Prior knowledge:
By secondary structure, the protein is α/β, with parallel strands linked by helices. The chain has two domains: 207 residues, Alpha-Beta Barrel (TIM Barrel), CATH 3.20.20; 108 residues, Roll (2,3-Dihydroxybiphenyl 1,2-Dioxygenase, domain 1). It has twelve helices and 16 strands. It has an eight-stranded mixed β-sheet with strand order 10-11-12-9-13-16-15-14, with helices on one face. It has a six-stranded parallel β-sheet with strand order 5-4-3-2-1-8, sandwiched between helices. Helix 7 links the parallel strand 6 and strand 7. Helix 2 runs parallel beside helix 10. The mean pLDDT is 97.
Amino acid sequence: MDVLERIGKIGLVPVVVLEKASDGPPVAAALCDGGIPIMEITMRTDAGIDAIKAVKASNPEVLVGAGTVLTLDKCKESVDAGAEFIVSPGFNPKIVDWCVKNDVPITPGCVTPTEIEMALDKGLRVLKYFPAGVYGGIKGCTALQGPYKSMGLKFIPTGGISLKNLDEYSDKEFIHAIGGGWLSNPKDIASGNFDAIRETAKLSIAQLLGFEFAHVGINTADDDDSKKVAEEFDAVFGFGVKYGNSSNFAGSGIEVMKGAGLGKNGHLAVKTNNVGRAIHYLESKGFTVDMESAKYKGDTMVAVYLKEEIGGFAVHLLQK
């Protein structure tokens, strides 16, 4: 998995401002404990370069990038220190050209069609959208992505995003990841409150994935039995029946299979904002996914089963 793909799977990019390089490792540890093994350490302070070195030495599993990279010299210095990706607030041709030539992933800030086309011309397809809150938020991203959808353009919006509006970005296919300082509040860093950073990471992941119950699946003997069960639910509760090819639905929450489907007792469907990203997080917790069960809409995975049953039920993820 390359760096940009890994960023997309994680889906969140903490923008970390450090006054002391020694704060880097405990912040990295807190983010990892919270489920986010990535940091964009900014060059806004003199501690940035040493912080990259410290984090890579103490937490090698963390994907570390350099942010607020304004000059080519600082770009080279960051990479020499161990930065695995570069983030710049604007489109700097010198920095972009050097990164492309040296196979260093870079996401320059682009908020106009002209900047986007300059980036696309360099072969870049994932761009920073900064400051997102100033340039229209998700509406701005949506409007700008539209003309370039066929070219595979995706954004990493940063600036003005928090737990209050994370939902606006989480379910959009063209949002590659979401960055922000809310994931590592400078006040928490200064006070050594790394527990708060860990808890914020957990809350942010939960909001990013947006898991919610979709429906329960009931196994039956055959088509006639399926119809009978669905119609019984309708007779009792007035849910209505929707007849289908492989199953029938009573309302939107009860799927009655036309035969013995997966799961000893049936199956449970759980909606998520992004099936691919949800797989990444579930696998990081030790669960496994049956990729042979995956279903796609175009290139986007829209459903897949876990290999494990829970309480005798098979479980499948479902794209919202």
